[in-house]
Amino acid sequence: MKTSPLKLALIPVLMFGFGFAMVPLYDVICDITGLNGKTGRIQAAEVTDPVDRSRTIEVRFLANTSSGLPWDFEPLVKKMEIHPGQVYEAMYRVRSTSRDKTLGQAIPSVSPGTAAEHFNKTECFCFTQQALEGYETRDMPLRFVVGRDISDKIEQITLSYTFFGQEQG
Amino acid sequence: MSTEITHDTAHDEHDHHGPAKGLMRWVTTTNHKDIGTLYLWLSFIMLLYGGGMAMIIRLELFQPGLQFVEPHFFNQMTTMHGLVMVFGAIMPAFVGLANWLVPMMIGAPDMALPRMNNWSFWILPFAFAMLASTTFMEGGAPAFGWTFYAPLSTTFAPDTTDFFIFAVHLMGISSVMGSINIIATILNMRAPGMTLMKMPLFVWTWLITAYLLIAVMPVLAGAVTMMLTDRHFGTSFFDAAGGGDPVMFQHIFWFFGHPEVYIMILPAFGVISAIVPTFARKPLFGYSSMVYASASIAILSFMVWAHHMFTTGMPVAGELYFMYATILISVPTGVKVFNWVTTMWKGSMTFETPMLFALGFIVMFTIGGFSGLMLGVAPVDTQYHDTYFVVAHFHYVLVTGALYSIIAAFYYWVPKWTGHMYDETLGKIHFWWSTIAVNVLFFPQHFVGLAGMPRRIPDYSLQFAEFNQISSIGGFAFGLAQVFFLYIVIKTIKGGVKATDKVWEGATGLEFEELPSPPPYHSFTQAPPVK
């Protein structure tokens, strides 16, 4: 069983590549399993489910800012009782406390993680970057629907948004 | 071998067979024994450097409140202590042992790639000089913990982090080159008759460790490269704002990190499997099961990484899988411990210093293994996570485990290397001093951990004061014991009772049976007979 060092050197080269391959792999696994709280995006026309009025789920809304972004960010309604299959609208208000124009990107996260793949949005301020002029206040809508096939065990969903500061570009 | 070379050696045998003179001998050497010595000295210096930082940590924790150092400096100390001990003390020490022992154990004249061997070593002093220099720079040394989780190590880290990143790259390159060398030596250069299943277990465990190293060090290199591009080149691997994910950093890090802990313990298993049979005067019980157990541990180590991440909000299915897989590792590890105990069963045992350290290893490594089992149980890990219980656990497996095996290996093979016996009385004092001190140091940390004291914090609640005081006293005593060890090492190198060629009555293996003590600078230029 002889070996050549050059052949052995292939292993570290491949494993260095594997380290980077873990990045897309991670996203794929999160996509398939719905882990990690990443929510889905659908078109309004795709919502065809009849509404399931026999079930009520509580949805709570959280809002945070990060990366030194000088914004006040809050949901106008803290929680809602919803039926699976129906489209709801929730409003968020953001107010810049800075004199200058600032740019932010909202990143959603859903808890429990297994609810994420059933939590779909037809419209969201998180789809694009938001630019605020100095001291501007803006109300932003979120339209979402929770799929009917969501597990019976889930009675409460928490939707959290964090606004991250972006470089002007 | 051509006739020309034979002709040369016949003429200038003396010049060609001894080491070169002067300091340049150590810089330009390609001799496996010289390079082994260099590795061992580097790791000793790093042990004292990392130990010095541990003394600062224990000094600050001697009583509640902030006494001696700023919290930011304290964080630098815990981070650098971890990095230096893992990458500077334990890993190079095992590479040094491999350099000294693998060629002598398999009947090879030297390592397969001697020039690369020189490079593997000489990269390291530069890597550690670079890492250590950050302490004196603006922003200070890395202070984000040895696990350098993003975004602490990316968005919120000082500029000196780039020195840390390149130091890790260099250590990785050194480890990968060293490992390729070890694999090539073991697979290509065994003496005729030395089949794989006749190899000493130290050689086997190192072969497996070397494969682990070339598989996971590049993943670590990938992780720090992503950190580098996140910090400076606008990528967002670990930045949620740009679509990345900080939790993914933990997955990549621990995909390296878990095999890494077996990299630090598998060669130790090999050392203990050499020492216990010698002093029990019985062959090792269950040789082939030891080989298969080592291989199973190595394979399983790739499948359990997320047990370091039970509190990140993993789904229950994930927690269950990683919990069961983790606990499964205790089966091959248990096989090893029971094999050592069975080897000693009804043996004619004597208790020289190497055996004492080996026995200390078996008892205390097992304690660390049990606390590891507790940590592997997902529901209770929520309580233990990031407390001193974790600190106690990994110090039992790394100090009384890996470090004890390295010290045992030193006492066991140093008469062979130098031709001098160490002073048995001093060796025994070193063992008992260290063993009492290390338990005073780490055992109370189990209790403060269970009571809720978090790790990596310079100050703590009053109710933890007594246990921390006891722990600190043990820490200072243990630190001093290793300075005493330095004295023993120097004394043994300088002189001592002449060691016999076999050194130990029950010793087996080519290095004891076929070579004088000390061995010639170039050993086994003729392949030895293998029984």
Can you describe this structure in just a few lines?
With 169 residues, chain A is an alpha+beta fold.
Commentary on this structure:
The complex is a heterodimer of chains A (about 170) and B (about 525). With about 170 residues, chain A is α+β, with helices and mostly antiparallel strands. Chain A is built from 1 helix and 10 strands, in the order αββββββββββ. In chain A, the strands form 2 sheets. Chain A has a 5-stranded mixed sheet with strand order 1-7-9-5-3, with no helix packed on it. Chain A has a 5-stranded mixed sheet with strand order 4-2-10-6-8, with no helix packed on it. The model of chain A has no long low-confidence stretch (mean pLDDT about 85). By secondary structure, chain B is an all-alpha fold. Chain B is globular, with a radius of gyration of 23 Å. The chains are: A alpha+beta (about 170), B mainly alpha (about 525). The interface between A and B is large, with 32 and 39 residues.
Overall 3D geometry of chain A?
A: flat
Total count of strands of chain B: 0
* Biggest beta-sheet profile of chain A: 5 strands, mixed
Helix and strand run of chain A: HEEEEEEEEEE
Please tell me how large the radius of gyration of chain B is. 23 Å
Q: Mean pLDDT of chain B, rounded to whole units?
A: 93
